[in-house]
Amino acid sequence: TKIPFRLNQNQALLTFEDEEVAQRLIKMGKHSVNLDNKIADVRVKPFTLEMGIKFELHVTISGKTINISEVPELSIPEDWMRDKLELNFYKSKQGGGGEVENVNYDKRSRTAVVTFLRPGAANGFVRCTKYPFFVNGRCYRLSVSPKADVHLEKFQLYCGISKKTILLKGIQETEDDEESTQDMIEIHFQKPSNSGGEIEKIKYVSKGVTWVCFEE
């Protein structure tokens, strides 16, 4: 997951391609930057990110079972409805279906679970959200979705200090717009003569605050 960081007014974040450049600038502490022909003394700080989450999400789509919802409310016995659902999906022309092993129907929630005998019979319904259902000469639309087993693995919490990114504080406001000031900051910290290096990303805020997201 992405970790949000609050970037306040007159602050900037610079991410360098080389970790050593960022660490060297942090050790130096203060830097004199030319902004709009004015020399601004800015402070370079490391910062600690908030807690992040890392996990693997595994989803297995069943090839034999589909979930049905929005089954119409009809004044017929439940076993008749089960039979009609079974017949409807047995005669399917959607590229799936076939002989049905079991139909589990719940009248109260208007849902059903249909399990086919043949593996892969449910695959034809994966992209079919509204499925025609014929009862007593009328056509209804069922909501069909594949049955999926979902589980998490390798769930971890982590936090730390970004080694390639520095935080600039105390940037003085100028008459230039935010983009121009950001360009001047970038030019300064890209020069090797200023102990800088190639910048991967930069974000400067002159007014208000913004949220910048980090990945692990």
TrEMBL record:
Record keywords: Cytoplasm, Immunity, Innate immunity, Nucleus, Secreted
Organism listed in the record: Fregata magnificens
Gene that encodes it: Nmi
Recorded family membership: Belongs to the NMI family.
Compartmental location: Cytoplasm; Nucleus; Secreted
Lineage, top ranks: Eukaryota, Metazoa, Chordata, Craniata, Vertebrata
Name of the featured protein: NMI protein
A biological process from GO: regulation of innate immune response
InterPro entries linked: Nmi/IFP35_dom, Nucleotide-bd_a/b_plait_sf
Gene Ontology cellular-component annotations: cytoplasm; extracellular space; nucleus
Domain NID span(s) in chain numbering: 12-101, 112-201
Gene3D superfamilies: 3.30.70.330
Pfam families membership: NID
